[in-house]
Amino acid sequence: MKKDTFSYDNAMAELETIVKKIESGECKIDELTAEVKKAAELIAACKNKLRGVEQEIDEAFNLFEE
Q1: Backbone dihedral region for residue 25 (phi beyond 0: left; psi -120 to 50: alpha; all else: beta)
Q2: C-alpha span between 24 and 50 (Å, rounded)
Q3: Number of H helices, E strands in the chain
Q4: Which of 58, 37, 45, 39 has its CA nearest to residue 5?
Q5: How far apart are CA 22 and CA 19, in angstroms?
């Protein structure tokens, strides 16, 4: 997953789809591992995005303090 094409909203929507699929029983046992791995990757990417946004906001507020 490339950082420059990453969309937090799309990742969250995909996560919701995966969770619904697993919870509803639509996910076959053979697909379960792949779905869980994909969800873990999406969660990690979302966390990184949020950390980056937090850092940018902190930096922007630090400009006001100077």
Answers
A1: left
A2: 29
A3: 2, 0
A4: 45
A5: 5
Q: How far apart are CA 16 and CA 28, in angstroms?
A: 17
Using CB atoms within 10 Å of the CB of residue 60, give its burial: 0 to 12 exposed, 13 to 18 middle, 19+ buried.
Answer: exposed
DSSP 27: S
- Burial class of residue 2, CB neighbours in 10 A (0-12, 13-18, 19+): exposed
Q: For residue 5, what is the DSSP state?
A: G
CA dist 27 and 63 (Å) reads 49
Residue identified by tokens 């969770």 is 19
* pLDDT tens column, 1-56: 445 689 999 999 999 999 999 999 999 999 999 999 999 999 999 999 999 999 99
